[in-house]
Amino acid sequence: MCGLFGLLRSPSAAHPEWASDAFVLLGMLAEERGDDSSGVALFTGRAVTSAAPVPPDAADISVDGCRIVKGRGRFGRVWRSDLLLALLDVAPVAVGHTRHATQGSPADLANAAPLAVSGPGAGIVAAHNGDVAAGALRRRFALPPGLGGTDSEAIFQALAGRTDPVSISEVLRALVGRAALTWVERARPDRVHLARAALSPLAVAVDTEQNMYWASNPRWFREVRANTRVRFASAVMLREGTYLEIARRPEPRIVARAEFVPTARPADLDERVWAGFTPADRDRDRAQLRHVLHRPGVGHDTGGFATVA
Q: Could you tell me which of 115, 154, 218, 283 has the fewest CB atoms within 10 Å of its CB?
């Protein structure tokens, strides 16, 4: 079970260093969900209209519009405050990931996230928590061969170049397995896309300076509140089958959303989905699950959970 975390910075925030402290702490907390590898993508805010493919196995690369740093092991081993904190303080968007490998060798940095995936236009930079049927996804959307060995790459190849909720939802409905996703179009680095498909948790919070954050565990926001100067105005767990597009200006706000029916496999119903959750948080989230189950040869059923109306 991987960990997602990130920051969409408000243009009017009076204390940018507070949000940076929160982001770094979220990365430390996300180690509980994976320590095979970890990484961050820090955006400059510069839009890229065309770009050459980004080497997937680079440990630290500055590409047009963002810097991607990743490595094997825990977030605390990869994060370098002396090299990255000044950039983080001014980055309008920061995307983080900690990996628990399910597909693709944990030793290969090409499988570490965030991933820069080419596609129409300049492509996307993205991270995924979960495990999906990548082969079926590649066949359905006639995707090119991947550069690494992860299912995540297949998901983001399918999403690259899709900019409207209808076409994005087409991909999200096609996912079979666990998935929570975050991605940024390099051509529009002032916007963040978040999606929760089946099971893999994703929470979103807004602080009192209007910065927006996301994380794989709602408890992490309570830890941030207790250990930094950040105070949250709201924090919610996204329901399964939710897609959001969030713009940064004039203040972070939802500009597009969609609901879809997510699909899981029987083997995906694993308590480790809620690794690190308090029992109360786990039970609240479990009570709202609404995916359908995929059973090869017999179609879908609800698996005892309510489906979307």
A: 283
Do the domain assignments include residue 123? yes
| CATH code of the domain covering residue 190 | 3.60.20.10
Query: Residue 130 above 90 pLDDT?
Result: yes
Has this prediction a pTM greater than 0.90? Answer: yes
Task: Write the DSSP assignment of 73-95 as a string of letters.
Answer: S-HHHH--HHHHHHHHHH-SEEE
Residue 271 lies in a domain: no
Distance CA 181, CA 202 (A): 8
Tokens 């786990």 belong to residue: 282
Residue with tokens 């039970």: 283
Local confidence band at 83 (pLDDT 50, 70, 90 cut-offs): confident
Number of domains in the chain: 1
Rounded Cα gap, residues 294 and 209, in angstroms = 42
Average pLDDT over residues 44-65: 88
Contact indicator for 13, 248 with CB cutoff of 8 Å: no
| Closest to 95 measured CA to CA, from 83, 112, 109, 72 | 112
Q: Is residue 144 part of a domain?
A: yes
Beta bridge pairs of residue 254: 246
107 vs 230, which has greater pLDDT? 230
Q: Please, are residues 154 and 137 in contact by the beta-carbon 8 Å criterion?
A: yes
Domain span including residue 88: 3-260
Share of the chain above pLDDT 90, in %: 84
